[in-house]
Fold:
Amino acid sequence: MDIVVQKFGGSSLASVERIWRVANYAAETHRSGSATVLVVSARGDSTDELLELAGAFSGDQFSDRTTREIDQLLVTGEVVSAALTAMAIERLGVPAVSLTGAQAGIEVAGKYGGGVISSIDPKRIVELLEAGNVVVVSGFQGTNAEGDMVTLGRGGSDTTAVALAAALDASRCLIYTDVDGVYTADPRIVPTARPMPFVDVRLMAEMAFAGAKVLHSRAVELAAMRGMELQVLSSFAPGAGTRVFEGSNDAMLESDGAVVAVTHDFDVARVLVQARKDLAADILSALGRRSIPVDLVARSGPSEDEFRMGFTARLGDIPEILAVLGEAIPEADGQVRVDRDVAKISLVGMGLLNRPEYAARMISTLAAEGIFTTWISTSQLRVSAVIERGHGANAVAVLHREFDLERAAAAAGSMTTA
Ligand code: ASP
Ligand code: MG
Structure:
């Protein structure tokens, strides 16, 4: 059985008319002879609306009991999309069945609001496909060992799609969104940004981690691990979109030492810890146990009398981070400062570690615009800097120009046809 997984984001399902469009795509795929699995997100901004509603009752205090109830609430957004989409497909004359994450056999480990898919039992999906149905699965969710619903983190429906594609051994995994592919920078900020015909999966993983919203970063990691090619396409306009796959050696040679994209992350805060004793290992292991990702980690050296450490984290994780630090810090007679007025700007490309001039050019280009880079970190695939939030959009635009990304995107295009 040739299986195709098609994922549709919230904006693709935001109105009745758009749901019909998605239903038509699914019916067409089904009629072309492929067993079709749809993964859907909550409609439009409904996840944000549910979160805002929850805020009226949850307060700011971080607690596991609150996050459990928030997950119970959030999963409903995707369930609504799935049921409506299945009804629309059925009306087009193609049998369709919607399934929640639990009904689709998706098991999740980890905490509420940040679950990780641990296994999928695709038996029910396969039976429904074999019986000739289109199967519409609610993205972004699964059940844990207690049978509770757990969500996969914002944007997590992409990860549902990739995990299902892997579990079903699908021939294609198509991610439909509101832009026609992966861009050299967010096109809403940089109008001259160009769609890229392909992106190496490792660079895509780096871009997603550095804030590119187009794909959930764990979806890309999973695709890399399973050797699964993804295609990012617009659900509004025809076009080839972007292929995300493990680049051939030739493509890698060409892009070695080149910046391919500028990514920004405004969902970020900077945390500074000061204490009388060294807490680095304790703090990092406590954050690790709670699966809280941090970036740009720096710490004072052993010869200084005071211990200082800094890192960036997601804004939404700050209450939990403060709870974790609240246990360690008072004992060490220390203090914590959180700076929420920051942005993380990243250059993404191959072989950047061998090119320190990129970091230098980044700093001086931003300085010429009056933008001061506080922290900076470099790796093989990424140079990231922390700046003031208010300068975020301008920083992305000037770096995009400085690194000639319009031309780089055109060159990448000619490479695919070469
Ligand atoms: N609806 C969820 C969100 O807004 C999941 C997703 O869209 O992938 O984050
Ligand atoms: Mg998304």
In short: The chain is about 40% helix and 25% strand. Residues 64-91 form the longest helix (28 residues).
